[in-house]
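Ligand: (R)-mevalonate. Inputs:
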Amino acid sequence: MSRRRAAEARAPGKLILFGEHAVVYGHPAVAAAVDRHTTVRLERIAGPTRLLSATVDDARLLPALATVLPPRGIGVHLHTTLPVGRGMGSSAALAVALVRALAALEGRRADVEECVRRGFDIERIFHGTPSGLDHTVSALGGAVRYVRGQPPAPIPVAVLPLVVLDTEIAGDTDALVAGVRARRPAVDADLAAIGALVDAMVPALARGDLATIGAGMNENQQRLRRIGVSSDAVDALVDLARRAGAAGAKLAGAGGGGVVIAVAPDPAPVLAAAARRGVPAFAVEIRSPRDPADDPATGTEGPAPPG
Ligand code: MEV
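Predicted complex:
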């Protein structure tokens, strides 16, 4: 049987359109894969498994790799076009890309079930007790309505003019989730209202009804503020986007910094306003339905080095 000596795979990051934090407590959320990715290349090498190159510097990387890779014989290259630690699912994309690349090295293809199951073990290294939303969306691609513990439901989402604005501050997901947990039950009504808002937004997302989606984002953001996960930097970018004509804006991900998403009938003035203030911002394309190009695992045949 031929033995692959190298393999490469990638997986997309995601944006949570509605429902972060509430999803941890069993409420629905809607998230969509984006056109930015983490790529993993694996090579058979002599000696211990190790990181050969990475565009990410994170102490949790090695334990994360050890979750699925053998202790010896694999060299790893990591590359991501996602802003790291900003709520766009760079760790989830790494988890899924790693599972895909390992399967490709073994000469097979990882299906969604395997990516979700093994990817969750890797996500737990990064985030303790995540809801599973991030890596599930990365594995499935497209847009998904997700309830913890239930099979994810792919949903249609119209092409949306979305702008991502980066606070350039990494939010600490574990601490933010723990903070919300500590504020329960006082925040339970807001968490439930966020869950109800998610389901009200599903048909608006399918229609591409920007006014309704924008109003929904504004309400979601207000409730995220009330549960204590917004920040001055987030609020400033939400305000900037709205003043520049966005129909609505909210933090996306765990908060405490991270990115803000804005839905804007005309993204140009939002991007221009961000540029004037020196705020990194970019238009983003969400993936709905799933894009097969998000899963192009490839392998290189050939003898592995001894060792
Ligand atoms: C983080 O991207 C989303 C949170 O809802 C946490 C989780 O779902 O695990 C804040």
